[in-house]
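Sample pair:
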Amino acid sequence: MSDPLAGYEKSAEPFSSLTLRWPERPADPAIPRGAEPPTLRSVREAVENGRRLTREEGLYLLAGAPLADLGALAQRARFRRLPERVVTYVIDSNPNYTNVCTVDCHFCAFYRKPGHAEGYTLSIDQVLEHIAKAADWGCTTVLLQGGLNPAIPFSFYPDLVR
């Protein structure tokens, strides 16, 4: 069996045991590189000029842009809009009102099919109790999330946020 990492070069930067890269695509955006791909150049120009990205550029960033380049462009865009070197955050809470779900999302290890022994659905009072505890802990944002449970009537959702 061949080594799947054989085509990679170990990075010379710190954490070299954790950072692998292609020799022709350095992990550090400050390292000089060959010709810049046209879409990357277009995105960089959009960031520098404050132009809204095209659909093609957005898809490129989502699916094809090297991660280091994406991070460097994001940093430039951030400093263009917010030049202060201050980062803020919110303390949020994600009460999961149900883990019962009929959708098989590839990324979710949380859900349980209807009828599963580990499935649950919280009442509105239980969700509100969770939110009250979160507020006591300093939470300023609530992100309601849960499975797509066919047993929950539509009225549950507007009643929950009233």
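Strands lie at 9-10, 20-21, 92-93, 141-142.
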